[in-house]
Design a protein that fits this description.
By secondary structure, this protein is an alpha/beta fold. It has helices at 5-11, 30-41, 53-59, 64-71, 88-98, 114-118, 136-142, 145-150, 152-158, 162-166, 171-180, 185-189, 196-207, 216-223, 227-239, 268-274, 287-305, 350-355, 370-373; strands at 19-23, 45-49, 76-80, 103-108, 126-130, 243-248, 261-265, 311-316, 322-329, 332-339, 360-365. A six-stranded mixed sheet has the order 7-6-8-9-10-11, sandwiched between helices. Strands 2-3-4-1-5 form a five-stranded parallel sheet, with helices on both faces. The protein starts with a helix and ends with a helix. The model has no long low-confidence stretch (mean pLDDT 92).
Length: 374
């Protein structure tokens, strides 16, 4: 069994008088993680799934008396896919306030509605965690750093979804299923998308532009949608944990890009499934983009799991001077350039160094990347 970093963190907060929320995309292992935690607690447990209609009826617009009857003598309540339940925030608040001996753990595969439902009712009453697909660090602990290093090119193509990692030989079929159905389930079920075909075209367009600046106007022209629709759908994709955005750093120079953004995928395998390209690294023209997507997504995982709170950017000027990734924390900018080929000569632009003196810089290649992503 592959150990998840969050397991010990969450286990430490059991029965501390607060609800525990675990967010993350579908199929990243939330249910497996919760089951491992439940096994260790060894207390009577009630498991409810928000995907089921009758469960939604039981937990929507309920009362503390009804909840006491439903939970009975169980000390641990698991609510899976909580974002599907109306007014779930109020329900969780009632449990925390009125059933002090009950620990509730709720999972959500989307922040589309769950975040809005729980933010105010659960103020001061929750521990919140985010679960990503498996990370490089988790897999290095499971196999070995050497073995995971040997599998690097495989990970760049197929990514880190748990079922993909644990079913060698079936990666393509699993990823195609994920990319064609599960990932959009929350968006479609909440009726936020009136044009599913446009959404699918948008995802494909974004997949072909990872590592590049994305113009909503140009993407809209390509897929037959207006700017507002593109921006709305990108926001939904981000809230469903399919993609994430980097905005441009712009503070000192007139020729810095100010309103630009880059959009990356939360998992390399999903990105490649969207464009139906699982070719080996040696045959690909997009290895640089895959490398950037891999490093930034893994860095985000490492930052989250290690409680490193940072601002994230990229940097580029109209003269096309560029830095792939920048973090800001403790008042200092940390600039990183990513190169798959370690022999290629790469430098941080002097324009950036002059504009932001005191910044720390590094070049990350396939020969030296471990410390960056763990």
């Amino acid at each position: 069994m592959i150990s998840r970093i969050l397991e010990s963190k969450i286990s430490e907060q059991i029965f501390k008088g607060k609800a525990i929320l675990i967010l993350g995309a579908r199929q990243v292992g939330k249910t497996t993680l919760v089951n491992r935690i439940v096994q260790k607690t060894e207390v009577p447990t009630l498991y409810l799934n928000g995907d089921e209609v009758d469960v939604r009826g039981l937990l929507s617009n309920t009362t503390s008396t009804q909840l006491k009857t439903l939970i009975g003598k169980n000390q641990l309540l698991i609510i899976d896919e909580a974002q599907r339940i109306a007014n779930i925030g109020i329900t969780l608040k009632l449990i925390v306030d009125n059933l002090p001996d009950v620990q509730v753990i709720a999972t959500g595969s989307s922040s589309l509605e769950l975040a809005n439902q729980i933010r105010e009712p659960l103020t001061g009453r929750k521990f919140e965690y985010f679960l990503f697909p498996l990370s490089y660090g988790e897999m290095a602990n499971y196999t070995s750093p050497l073995e995971e290093r040997r599998l690097l090119e495989h990970r760049l193509i197929y990514g880190y979804y748990p079922e993909v990692v644990t079913h060698a030989g079936d990666e393509k079929q699993i990823l195609q299923l994920l990319a064609s159905s599960y990932l959009y389930k929350d968006i479609f079920s909440l009726e936020k998308v009136k044009k599913p075909v446009i959404l699918e075209k948008l995802v494909q367009a974004l997949a072909l532009q990872i590592g590049q600046e994305v113009s909503y106007r140009e993407v809209g022209q390509l897929i037959g949608a207006d700017n507002e629709t593109v921006e709305k759908y990108v926001d939904l994709l981000e809230k469903a944990f399919i993609v994430f955005r980097l905005s441009a750093l712009s503070r000192n120079l007139r020729n810095e890009l100010k309103k630009s953004r880059k959009i990356y995928f939360c998992d390399n395998g999903i990105r490649n499934a969207v464009i139906k390209n699982f070719s080996p690294i040696a045959l690909r023209q997009d290895v640089g983009a895959l490398w950037k997507n891999f490093l930034i997504s893994e860095r985000i995982k490492a930052n989250h799991y290690n409680n490193r709170w940072v601002n994230q950017y990229f940097w580029r000027t109209h003269a096309q001077q560029e830095i792939d990734y920048i973090e800001e924390y403790d008042g200092i900018l940390h600039a990183f350039e990513f190169k798959w080929n370690p022999t290629r000569n790469t430098r941080i632009p002097k324009t950036f160094l002059n504009a932001y003196p005191g910044s720390e810089t590094a070049i990350v290649t396939k020969d030296h990347f471990y410390d960056f992503i763990v």
